[in-house]
Design a protein that fits this description.
The protein is of the alpha/beta class and about 325 residues long. The chain has a domain of about 220 residues: Rossmann fold (3-Layer(aba) Sandwich), CATH 3.40.50.720. Helix content is about 40%, strand content about 15%. The chain has a seven-stranded parallel sheet with strand order 3-2-1-4-5-6-11, sandwiched between helices. The chain has a two-stranded parallel sheet with strand order 7-10. A two-stranded parallel sheet has the order 8-13. The longest helix is centred in the N-terminal third of the chain and has 21 residues. About 40% of the residues are buried.
């Protein structure tokens, strides 16, 4: 089978990266993954992936690898989701993204697309009763250091006019192998249904297969230079509705209870202090509390539909059923 082209991929060892590798190989793309020597690659052992180990802090090193590979496409997924401070987030999520883009432009390769996986965190939430969802026309108002670093990365890339850029901003991504949302799934499977505060929320999701399909679809499409699109499954869910969907699939009844937001914030502050001098990072920190309790993450995807021909294939019930079946098969639940 003739190759669909050669992809330089970052973030291959992650949750989304694994699914993208599997789909890319199935479609006939040649995948070269840029990884660290310390990256765990066991889950990719069954795929014909080549590995390279460039220094992302060194543009010349990146340029050399890209020039040698003669890549048709770059998909940049790697980044930090936790860091000690804004500077550390910016260095990894923005600085290294800029280095890769500059190296790509200097490498004299036949680059057709540079796909940057950003985040809905760039845009920030809207009010609970907002008459419109989060669209690309909204002023970007990130409420976390992570979101601000992704916004900075987008600003860096937008200044490189010669870059054949497509930016995707997914909302919460879930699917087989995902670990953060899995914490909630495990809790519900055990009969516990906790909520932070009593304020209602609107939430949005995208199934991992829909996201990776879009990442690969746009490689072969004519797209507007520099286009940036928010990505979800096109629906919005009340937080209690999310739990109801999962409980229905699991066949479980649960005990619902509410933890005061103030208690969770106090715990986050305490954890931040405890981990201040540690190399490890806490799962919960003050800005994270603000993000997970934000009232409305409803996403509008009309621009993605129009500009990228995006059409989600999985809504939450179907995507969760597939995810939970995988977790059970793998004995995670």
């Amino acid at each position: 089978m003739a190759t669909q082209g050669k992809i330089f991929l970052t973030g291959a060892s992650g949750f989304i990266g694994y699914h993208l590798v599997a789909e890319a190989v199935a479609r006939g793309f040649e995948v070269v993954a840029a990884v660290r020597k310390s990256s765990r690659l066991d889950q990719l052992k069954d795929f014909p992936v080549q590995y390279v180990y460039p220094d992302f802090y060194d543009i010349a090193s990146l340029q050399q690898v890209l020039a040698a590979g003669r890549f048709d496409y770059i998909i940049h997924m790697a980044g930090a989701i936790r860091a000690k401070n804004q500077e550390a987030f910016n260095q990894v999520n923005a600085g290294l993204t800029r280095n890769l883009a500059q190296a790509a432009l200097q490498a004299n390769i036949p680059l057709k697309k540079f796909v940057f996986l950003s985040s809905l965190a760039v845009m920030g939430p809207v009010t609970y009763d907002s008459p419109t969802p989060i669209t690309e026309a909204k002023t970007a108002e990130p409420i976390t250091a992570y979101g601000r670093s992704k916004l900075l990365a987008e600003q860096y890339l937008s200044g490189l006019e010669a870059l054949p850029l497509v930016t995707l901003r997914p909302t919460v991504v879930y699917g087989p192998g995902e670990k953060d949302l899995f914490v909630m799934l495990r809790s519900l499977s055990k009969g516990w249904e906790p909520y932070i505060g009593r304020q209602s929320q609107w939430l949005s999701f995208v199934y991992v297969a829909d996201l990776v399909n879009l990442c690969l679809d746009v490689l072969l499409k004519n797209t507007t230079a520099g286009v940036a699109c928010n990505i979800s499954d096109g629906k919005v869910y009340a937080r209690e509705e999310v739990a109801q969907i999962i409980k229905k699939i699991l066949g479980r009844k649960t005990f619902r209870f509410y933890i005061p937001v103030g208690v969770v914030r106090a715990l986050a502050v305490l954890l931040e202090r405890i981990y201040r001098n540690s190399a490890k990072l806490p799962l919960l920190y003050p800005e994270r509390v603000g993000e997970i309790t934000a009232p409305n993450w409803n996403v509008g995807i009309e621009k993605a539909r129009t500009e990228l021909d995006y059409e989600p294939r999985h809504f939450l019930e179907e995507g969760m059923a597939k995810s939970l079946a995988w977790y059970r098969e793998q004995k995670w639940l």
